[in-house]
Each structure stands twice: as C-alpha cells, then as structure tokens.
Sequence to fold (517 residues):
Amino acid sequence: MALRKDPPDLLGNSAWNAIAFAVAVLLNLAILPFVVLRLGLAAFGVAGLVTACVAPALVFSNTLAMSTARELAQRLSPSDRDDARRLFATAAMLAIAGGGLIALVLVTVGAPFARLGFHLNGPAADDLGLAFVLAAAGWLCQCVGAVFLALFTARQDYRRIAAISIASTVVATAAMLLLIPLAPRASTFLGCQALGLATSLLATAFWSHRAVGAWQARPALHRDALHRLFKLGSWQMAAQGGALLAAQADRYLLGALLQPQYVGFYGVAQRLEEAVYVGVLKVGEILFPFFSSLQHEAEARKADLLLRASWILNVLAASTLGGLVPVAGPLLHLWTGAEVAAEAQRVLVVLSIAGILGSSANVFAFYLLAEARSRSNAQIALVTGAVTLATSAIALPLFGWQAAGWSACIGMIAQMTTTVLLLRRSFDLAGLWSRVLHFVLMPLGVGIVTALVLRGALARAAFELAPSWWSVVTVAALSAATIFVVAVAASQLGPYRAVCRRDLRAIAGRFLPLRAV
Fold:
C-alpha cells in the first residue's frame, strides 16, 4: 500500500509544516549576518548564553504542549467536548501560573547566575538584566501560546499553524531590522525575538477563539485532567531535560571555559545546522497526532507505518544535512565572513553528521509519545544527554572549542543505539532487525559516507568555489541530490525495495504536476 493512502492528508500536512519552516529559515538565516555584524560576536555570544540559560524552561512548556495536544487529539468528537474543555482549562492554568513562576525565577536569578557561571563582564554584558527580562517574557508567551496551538495540533490543522508561524517570524525579523541598528545590544536581539513570540500568542488566541472557541474554557484546575496531563508529562519532562542537556551541553561549557566570542562562533555553526535539522523534524512533526489516532490499530500495522516513515525522513535528513558537508567553508564565508568560516567550518561539518545520526530517533520519539510511553523517550534522552555532557567535559579542555561538535556525534551514536534496542523491545515481529537495518540505519550510514566522500573529492581536486552564492548553492544542491540518489539506490539492494519504490511514487504523485504513478 502506498504511503499517501494511509492517512487522509499526511503528506499535505507535512507540506504546510515545510512551507512555514522554509519561510522561517530563510528569514532567520538572512537576518543573522546583519545581527552578527551590528552586535559583534561578543554580544551575539552573550545573547546565546542568555538563551541557553532560559532553555531549561522549555522542558516545562514543551512537555505541557505535547501532553495537551495528545490528550486533545483523543477527544475530538462532540461527545468528548466537556472533557476536552476541562483539559484545556487545566493546561491554560498550568501555563499561566507555572509559567509565570518560572519566568519570575529567570528574571530574578538569571543575570547573577550568568555573570558568575560564564564570567561575563564588560560592555557586551552590561544589559544582562534586561536581556533576561525580555528572554523570559518571550518564553512565557511561547508557553501560554502553545496551549492554544494544541487545539490546532490535535486537529492536524497545519495550515493555520503555518500561518501563525510565518506571522511570528516576519514580525521578529522586521523588528530586528528596525531596532538593532538603534540599540545594538544583546537585549535588543532578545527583545525582537520576544516580540515575535508575543505576536504568535495573540494570533493563536484570536484565531483559536474564532475557529474552535466552543472547545476552550477559562483557566482552572480539574483533578482528572491534571492527572492525565501529569501521567504523560512526568516522564516527558525527563525526556525534554535529557534532550536539552544534549543540545546545550557544549554551549554551557564553552561559556564557562572560554570567551563569549567562541560561543558566538559555535552559535553560528549550530544555527545553520539546526535550521536544516529542525526543518526535517518539522516535516515529520505531523506524525505525532497521526500516531495518536492509531491507538486501536494492529501492532504489525503500526510497525509498518513507523519504519516506512522513518525511511522517508532519514533519506531526507541525510540528503539535506549531508549537502552542507562539502560546502561548509565557502557557505560560512559568504554568509558571515572569513573569520567565522575559518573558525567554524569543521564544527559545522561535525554538527551536520551529528544531525544525520540524530535523525534516527525522531519518528520513533513521535511514536512513543503518541503511545504515552514517555518513559522510553526519557531513557533515550537522558542517555544522550549524559554521554554528550561527559564527552564535552573531557574533550573541550583537552582539544579546545572546535572539539565541541564531537560530543554531539558521540551523543547521537548513544541515542541511536538506545533507540534501536528499545525498538526491538517494542515490537515482537519476525525479521525486525533486517527492517531496522534497511529503513533506519542504512540511509543514514550511506548519507554520511557519501557526504564525506564528496567533501574529500572536492578537497583533493583543489576545487575552489567562486565567491558567489549561486556556485555554493549549486554545489550544495548537487551534493544533496547525489546523496539522495545513492540512498535510494541503496534501498533497492534489500528485500524491501518494492515498498520503498511504492512510497516514493506516492510522494511524487502527491507533489509533482505530472503524476507518473
């Protein structure tokens, strides 16, 4: 059976997510050189450290958003409306009360902690207090807005979600263009981001009230709803915490050991890799409510959908992230200048490889969350975070800041190993290991090897890219296409080649003008 026939509009939802993310990425990547130039690498590094200090609050807001979306996705019929309203009211109360308390703590202790832990002083850190106020305010807007957005996520209404995301990004980008030249400080940059998040909150609250206002209720605590949210959210908070540790470990240690400009170098490389990685994640994000709606399907059916979706997203991740590897140096040179390119290109290569490895767990994480198996997600995330932190703590003092990306690679290898072991425990199906090898591991391994071969071939040929965007983009696109072709060709060597061909035809028939299916 072709993949597009499984859910009603799964590919269409992915397209809306991809469109919204593409707009956000283009605007964010376009504005970043302007921000770095106007702020300077030191102030940009300070802004990155403030963001890293606020990041632990995302454990609460992301967990609440996911738990609310999952519970609402199972209560969409009119007969469940009262129960859904109680869930919404409880989630809204938790976001306002709990989020407000967390924001207050960030505002109170954030600046003193950052000065002490990261040795921040001088002009670049003079506005730390205001920077934390604005960053905490932006996070609080995101926390409350996520509860309203869960109403759309539960209904898989990604058209509205995309429109809200685009509006938020446009407002934040316009604010940076207008305000950063007037006040080139870290707090200005964070304030512009907070303005975009506030726009998202207002737009989500207004639109959800008009579209699904009957499913909303005033903030209040209901014991049964609180129990359901906590039952899923307790382990999910541990999972979010492990993921946060893995994502921020290098930044924390760089801030503690080195000057803020090195955090800036790392932030530039990570921003570029993260843009592509999260783009692939956004395409697959629609699988969470989809898997949530498959509670009564047979185990074999769930495993089939899980592994086929993994193959598609893994091929996409290997192609897009692998396309950055051959052109890392020239791309950074054109984007942010020669100094950043010289310092950060190796980190970008290593982070891109880490992103490819990390893609192995994405679809499985959505499945586990939909199945309310947050304990397994927590185990994966905590192992990943612990290994990443331990590697960073050893590598950074010994080899300097450019060793930062290697800890992410080692952490992702630990994540992949844990994920495969849990996958084996989740499904008792014949031939599961061969399917995992074909659908999960092979496209990632083929992508990494092909990307490194292409980078080595360009280096051995002493190929010099002309200092123009069209040449760099052309080589990156050709590299991504080459990786895609090699990964698809490799899929035809195994016993599941017919399944891969059918799913590729289904995707082509959904998006291409001429449907040669």
In short: Residues 39-221 form one domain. The radius of gyration is 22 Å. Confidence is low (pLDDT under 50) at residues 1-8.
